[in-house]
Amino acid sequence: MLNQLTVSELAAKLARREVSAREITQSCLNQIARVDGKIHAFLSHDAGDALAQADAADKELSGGVKKPLLGIPIAVKDVLAVKNQPLNCGSKILGQFISPYDATAVEKLKAAGAIVFGRLNMDEFAMGSSTENSAFGTTKNPWDTARIPGGSSGGSAAAVAADECIASLGSDTGGSIRQPAALCGCVGLKPTYGRISRYGLVAFASSLDQIGPFTKDVRDAATLLGVLSGADPRDATSVPVPVPDYAAALDGNIKGLKLGLPREYMIGGLDPEVKAAVDAAVKQYEKLGAEVVEISLPHTDYAVATYYIIATAEASANLARFDGIRYGARIDGSDPIELYAKTRGAGFGPEVKRRIILGTYVLSSGYYDAYYLRAQKVRTLIRNDFLKEFETVDAIVTPTTPTAAFKIGEKSDDPLQMYLSDIFTISCNLAGICGVSVPCGFTRSPKLPIGLQLLGPPFGEARLLKLAQAYEQATGWHREKPPLTAGA
Ligand code: GLN
User: 486 pLDDT band (50/70/90 cuts)?
Assistant: First the structure.
């Protein structure tokens, strides 16, 4: 089935004129019709618009036009602005809002010829690890629909894992690309802070947020990263570092590269099957000629606490704009204050309110120094831990998550337990470095995907992806399909 193929496989078929963009798009739409009732990865999609884009792509293809994603259907998380499409961020507060413009990342996908379609489910304003915080219902894990797909980009991961699209975009503030990619069995890349413009990405925590791709293999992640990267005058935090040919870097030769295993990541809560899969991956790397050494990231213990101060502080400021005046839903009051209170009270869900309250508290006078300022200092220590190790190792290997996908409802009453599911992914955002999750095996019963996380130095994506791809090609875990969708 065409919808099961990768970007590079489809691009080759399109170039040979063996298939049309319309056929590819139709096979994704058919798959959505077949499985999305069970998975709920999509909040909405416009089939007519997707097919119209496909027809335009087919015209270009027959005119000999060459673009890296020409004719490839790519779906996006509901936090990225796509012109004339709904933008809800998994929240009720945006009401019937329709985006008047394209995010830079979306603009770049379109310029590369992609068929950009669909709104993918997510935790409200990207706050969560399971999509249970979406105002529009939970996405289910394609490997076991009684379980969560991870979050906050759960829809983006589930849609790729269930072959409802060829690739997708998500955003990662503390793990929201890598964690759901791990739990759904696909590849998820969080680029270096500043690598991809955030213009048109609704901000959660501006110093941590990054856009990144979900794909079926590492080569596709490299292709998408190449398309998406680069400085943008509309995002002052995007950095004018040259964009290498990421796909060309995937030469499979990792002999002599050095990998670090942080001793602080082998924690008590680590599931034995996850640990065994990561141990086996380390052995595989040694077989491929890499050298693996133990390293130390001594401030790891403080990462979750630091993140939940900085992320909530920034969120409390960013989410002030959703006030019933500027965008979306409005509940009138007798004065503006009452209007704000009623609109925000009804529009935001419980997790978003919890974070706004926490963030406002850590920024308030008297507590600012004790919490926010201190968290910023600890953040620097965490970043320095990484930079010091990257002087001697090429990448750091860890599990992506402490356990495989948990059951829907299992952690929703216990925010702290939920926060701990990002224990291995959060430091990467605090440090501003890059990270990728690749499939590295399955739990036995039930059969659920396990993810391996590789972390690299700032703007070190080329080597990171080369390492990830060498492992992927040697093992082939990424080729397994969930029973719900396999052979559909
Ligand atoms: N799960 C983390 C949180 O709830 C990370 C979310 C994200 O990366 N957007 O904040």
Answer: low
Active-site residues, by number, are 77, 152, 176
Across the range 106-113, mean pLDDT stands at: 98
Q: Coil, helix or strand for 430?
A: helix
Specify the pTM: 0.98
Please state, as a whole number, how many other Cβ atoms lie within 10 Å of the Cβ of residue 60: 15
> How is 18-78 classified by DSSP, letter by letter?
SS-HHHHHHHHHHHHHHHHHHH--EEE--HHHHHHHHHHHHHHHHTT---TTTT-EEEEET
Question: Can you identify the CATH homologous superfamily of domain 2-263+383-486?
Answer: Amidase signature (AS) domain (3.90.1300.10)
DSSP H helical segments within 147-271, as ranges? 154-161, 178-184, 218-228
pLDDT, tens only, 434-482? 999 999 999 999 999 999 999 999 999 999 999 999 999 999 999 999 9
Q: Which of 169, 173, 358, 419 to mutate to test the pocket of ligand 1 (most atoms within 8 A of CB)?
A: 173
**Interatomic CA distance for residues 27 and 73, integer angstroms:** 10
Give me 421's structure tokens: 């599911």
Buried/exposed 34-58: b ≥16 CB within 10 Å, e otherwise: bbbeebbbbbebeeeebbebbeebb
Distance CA 77, CA 276 (A): 32
User: What is the distance between the alpha carbons of residues 151 and 114, in angstroms, rounded to a whole number?
Assistant: 25
Domain limits, the chain = 2-263+383-486, 300-380
Whether the bond into 152 is cis, omega within 30 of 0: yes
Q: Could you tell me which residues come within 8 angstroms of residue 180 by beta carbon, excluding any fewer than 6 positions away?
A: 149, 150, 151, 152, 153, 154, 156, 157, 158, 170, 188, 214
Nearest-atom number in ligand 1 for the CA of 127 is: 4
Instruction: Please count the other Cβ atoms lying within 10 Å of the Cβ belonging to residue 225.
Output: 25
* pLDDT average, residue stretch 213-221: 98
435 alpha carbon to ligand 1 midpoint, in Å? 15
Protein residues with CB under 6 Å of any ligand 1 atom: 126-129, 152, 172-176, 204, 311, 422
Locate the ligand 1 atom nearest the alpha carbon of residue 421 and give its number: 1
Return the biggest CA–CA distance within the chain.
Answer: 70
Please identify, by atom number, the ligand 1 atom nearest to the C-alpha of residue 208: 8
CA of 429, closest atom in ligand 1:
8
CA 335–ligand 1 middle distance (angstroms): 34
Write the pLDDT tens digit of every residue in 223-232. 999 999 999 9
Residue 311 CA, ligand 1 centroid: distance in Å: 9
Going from the Cα of 126 to the center of ligand 1, the distance in angstroms, rounded, reads 6
Which residue among 306, 353, 422, 430 is best mutated to probe the pocket of ligand 1, counting the most ligand atoms within 8 A of its Cβ? Answer: 422
- In the reported structure, the alpha carbon of residue 173 is separated from the centroid of ligand 1 by a whole-number distance in angstroms of 6
> Ligand 1 test: best mutation among 152, 172, 312, 353, most atoms within 8 Å of CB?
152
